[in-house]
Amino acid sequence: MRLALMIVLFSSALSAQPPSQSDLIRLTGELRSAIEGDRLTPAADLADKLDDGIKAQQRAWLIRDADQQVEDILKWLPVNTESLWVNQDPFTIKAHESLRLLSGRAPQLYSVDRLSALNDGKFYRLLSGQTVRFVVAATWNNTFSQTIQIPALAPRQDVAYFFFFSEPVDFGSQDEYIEERPVWRAVAKILDAQAPFRPGVEPPQREDENWLALAQPDLLVLTSTKELLAGILQRTVHGSQTRALPSTVTEWNQVDRHASFWGLRHYTDQSRPKPNERGFKSATLPQPDGGAVGVAVNFDSAHQRLEIRYMSDAPLTRTGDLDVTRPDFQVDQPQAGVWRLVSDVKARGDYPVHFAFAMLGFGNYR
Amino acid sequence: MTRGSMLVLMASMQLMAQQNQPGELLKLTDDVETAIKAGDWQAAAKQSAALRDAVVAARNQAMAASGGELTDSFLSWLPSDTETVIVAREPFVLSAHDPARVPNALEQAQGYVLGLLGAAEQEGLYEAMQGGTVRLAAFAARKFADHPPDEKNNFIPLGLIAYQGCSLYAFAEALPESVLERSPDEVTLGNQVWISKGSQNDAPLSDTYLIMRPRPDLILVCNDRDFFSQVALRMTVPESPRALPADLPEWKHVDQMAALWAIRHFRADRADVDPTLGQLLDSAAPGATGMTLRINANGTIQARMLSEVDPWKEIAENDEFNGAAKSSKIADGVWELSVAAKPEAALFAVFALMAALGLAIYL
Fold first, then answer.
1. CA angle B224, B228, B233 (to 5 degrees)
2. SS3 sequence of chain A
3. Interface ipTM > 0.90
4. A176 inside 8 A of chain B by CB
5. What are the pLDDT digits (tens) for A60-85?
6. What is the phi/psi pair of residue A163, to 5°?
7. Over 70: is that where the pLDDT of B355 sits?
């Protein structure tokens, strides 16, 4: 029994990391033997395993500096940043494919939906074929909304996205320079999330302005206003003495920075309900209660396992239609003041991931 | 055939032959190993994908040789009133559904052929076979119809419509005994038979599945006792006439070398009870007699229908195709729907064409 347990533990440890260089060389040896022996069925199986192993190594190599880059970005972001997420599951942009095909890959959808909408997809098309190593997104100046719609529409708030590419990006001639970095203005027609909700009626469209800059040849920054972009570029070039979401923020303790997607949010008074508003005493997730501290999200794309940790002493509203977590999550409290919502996304579909993004303060751009 | 197209064909045949040479595969393996040793993961990833594709192509080519003979046998075992046959000729590995992967048209169509395997033994058979390589899968069916409505709500179940059919799954290697661990339920003509309840629609356990292992590398799964009995009998004692006889005009439009091909001979006498025929013969293509389907490894699709009027006109203009579909007349009374290999179009194309073959799904 002890041996069996050790094997299970060893396998679990192995599955969390890419196979080593020597494991892969051993696989090429086995593959070579199978080809030489004309055993093509096991050869195909071995070639598939080898390819999976190499892709895992390639992924690890592509995100090798993600942790350090996130630390830098935290210094570039405004100190009042409320929410930040990191998608470190590399992907290649295929501009000719509809975003509908990203069903099953919600973090990738949320990574590119704003970028792909700009100037009718002009910038996105120019990036087609490029490998995105990882994406970091942040938002601030969030306000509390009683609307529970999953997937949510992107609220009107300040956002910044940082796209790290494997190769330099070429957008052609820029509109202007800020801090000697090339900058472009870009617009998109989007549904107005602030418009009053009317059942069965699609919200009106509005033109939304965004700004893009190449902070480095392989780092694209996208923000919702020019001022934000200027502030970020200023701190990128001249350095910063401040840090968003400081390490004292307790949500960091609930985040697994090795997960393929992780994020955290630290609520402010503006993003929580007031004493006279619905949901103040009991959280109707994805909206927080009045005393909520924050949220941490970890998503393992390989196993399609999502875990949301909602930090609040208040109870969750878990009756009738207001229990929006049912039946997509298993809910428990691993420690006082922390609600854990776990979902098997493979079985449940994308809904729980959309739910997690709504809790982080993000919605679909279009 | 023009000289130019002959040259292209010869060149691609040569390329295929070269790709399948062990020497070429070993060289690709060496290249991958060199990139691994150098720690050049970008290059290694590119080369290993090419190596995987080349080894799979070599395996498929080696397996294809025996596929034609097995397909002929399967056709000879079918009841004479069989309406539809679908053959997945390109080998593939049974694997768990990966929601993060967008399947191409071929993979989606293979999913239909795997339907009976997936439903039998409360899905346990499919689970037990995960990782196995299917070298050929063939499906045959007749008597497509709506399920009777449920007694409580008078609703027709959602999911696949009713039919009687069997699928034969040929594996690259003999299957372990463990895939069917429990004792058989009966013996038919000397073959052990396992019987279970299941469903391909949202009415659970509404159908009965019969499984037989005619050979260690073959599994036969059927959802109808009579269809199963006729197949089992014809396996032992050849009978005529055969299903979908060779002189049917539809056969002229079947490409049996395609990764997946299908043929259906419409039975006008069933138009009243078969929802997949009713609308087609009433409005879209009155008098149509049959259809064929070809899905290529690269995901392109060609469907042909024997009809006096264009049966694909309306469907080709459907927004779901994203402009990837085109209908054309290729001969008097023969219309072809061709669909480009666009992932956005694949889901709808396979959904619609499988429905035309009888496998309609209510959503």
1. 155
2. CHHHHHHHHHHHHHHHCCCCHHHHHHHHHHHHHHHHCCCHHHHHHHHHHHHHHHHHHHHHHHCCCHHHHHHHHHHHCCCCEEEEEEECCCEECCCCCCHHHHCCCHHHHHHHHHHHHHHHHHHHHHCCCCEEEEEEEEEECCCCCCCCCCCCECCCCEEEEEEEECCCCCCCCCCEEECCEEEEEEEEEEECCCCCCCCCCCCCEEEEEEEEEEEECCEEEEECCHHHHHHHHHHHHHCCCCCCCCCCCHHHHHCCCCCCEEEEEECCHHHCCCCCCCCCCCECCCCCCCCCCEEEEEEECCCCEEEEEEECCCCECCCHHHCCCCCCCEEEEEECCEEEEEEEHHHHCCHHHHHHHHHCCCCECC
3. no
4. no
5. 999 999 999 999 999 999 999 999 99
6. -105, 120
7. yes
| DSSP letter assigned to residue B282 | I
Amino acid letter, residue A137: A
Q: Who among A36, A44, A101 is closest to B55 (CB)?
A: A44
Q: For residue A331, which of A321, A341, A343 has the smallest C-alpha distance?
A: A341
Cβ separation B29–A31 shorter than 8 A: yes
CB A222 within 8 A of CB A233: no
Partners of A85 in beta bridges: A137, A263
β-bridge partners, A159: A139
Closest in A28, A44, A48 to B29, CB measured? A28
The rounded mean pLDDT for chain B is 91
Which chain A residue lies closest to B347 (C-alpha atoms)? A101
Query: For residues A29 and A185, what is the distance between their CA atoms, to the nearest angstrom?
Result: 53
- Per the model's pLDDT, the better-predicted residue between A201 and B68 turns out to be B68
Q: Is the dihedral of CA A332, A335, A337, A338 positive or negative?
A: negative
Touching check for B58 and chain A: CB below 8 Å? Answer: yes
State whether residue A340 sits within 8 Å of chain B by CB: no
CA distance B100 to chain A (A): 5
Query: With contact defined as beta carbons under 8 Å apart, do B297 and B274 qualify?
Result: no
Give this prediction's pTM.
Answer: 0.83
Residue A326 contacts B where some CB pair is shorter than 8 Å: no
CB A357 within 8 A of CB A363: yes
Q: How many residues does chain A have?
A: 366
Do the Cβ atoms of A54 and B41 come within 8 Å?
Answer: yes
**Who has greater pLDDT, A54 or B16?**
A54
Q: Nearest-CA distance from A150 to chain B in Å?
A: 19
* Residue in B closest to A36 by C-alpha: B22
Sequence-distant (≥ 6) Cβ neighbours of residue B262 within 8 angstroms: B84, B85, B86, B87, B292, B293, B357
